[in-house]
Amino acid sequence: MNDSVKLSLEEVASLATESLTTQGFSLQQATAISKTITSAERDGCSSHGLFRVAFYVNALQNANTDAHALPVIDYPKPAAVRVDARNGFCPLALQIGVPELARVAKQQGIAALAINNAYNIAALWPEVEQLAEEGLVAMAFTCANSFVAPAGGNKPLFGTNPMAFAWPRDGKSPLVFDQASSVCARGEIQLHLRDGKSIPEGWAIDSNGNATTDPKAALDGAQLPFGGYKGSSIALMIELLAGALVGDLFSYESTEQDNAGTGAPFGGELVLAIDPTTFNGGHSHLDHAEQLFERLLSQEGTRLPGDRRHRIRAASTPVEIPQSLHQTLLGYCN
Ligand code: NDP
To answer: What is the pTM of this model?
Structure first.
């Protein structure tokens, strides 16, 4: 990378925390967000790394945002955990809710966590991976802002609505996938715009509904769901699970409440956790799953989702960010 700056993970964490606290976040909110950002940089996911600090800071322009919010937890049913983020940010709400979700899922066999009233600017793999590292099967869903046209339509309605899944493995990193229901995450288009690159065909349409490879026209127009109507139905399902089911906003409502046009998604997240012994008389069939993975990997050109991140993590090379991003972050710290 030309004009880049190399940082250790400790430097990434302290730069993120200091940027956020100087810009008005409580230490608790900033530390939780910084942890998420640092995990993304550690795993080579730059679109959810330090690049995201500006999104968190911009979200403060929304009159509803509370950068000092203290989330509140409650238990509406024996297998249900709910955390009200109280207009703060998702990482702190998850930090409180995920360990409780794991505890309840181990006790009940299956459990769900609803996060409400949260700004969610992060990737979903950290929460499902954390649950799988505790031996649980996990899924997570969240809405975003209205960026994606439904199949056949030409105006934004759905969010880029990601879903994540994690499967525990004995003595190995969990299998984890985490994917947007749009062809690509919005951050990817923003990175192309930042770097002056065109986007591939098929990612988006412009505001007139025509195909475009111009990232600016794509951001002003609509992203496309992956796999046509199939991805459109997944996006619709996520609107229902992370919106109506948990009593929170749909993506278009998140956009409508964004009174300062910050683009920060606000609303709910649903996280499910299942003990793999629940349906198997107290035994798990993790070894059976390993046979499937072996068959899959025996085909040349395949890999398991999550492996790329885990390989980058294991290599522990220094994080490299553009000099311009580094300057922006140092500016936040003043
Ligand atoms: P990608 O398309 O980059 O990756 C999706 C998944 O596919 C990853 O788990 C990846 O694993 C896996 N994968 C990629 N290539 C292969 C392969 N050849 N074989 C097997 N598995 C593979 O992600 P997206 O662009 O769809 O989403 C990026 C991120 O954006 C997600 O983390 C998502 O949570 C986040 N997001 C957040 C939103 C929010 O509002 N909070 C909104 C939308 C997206 P691996 O990591 O190992 O490459």
So the answer is: 0.96
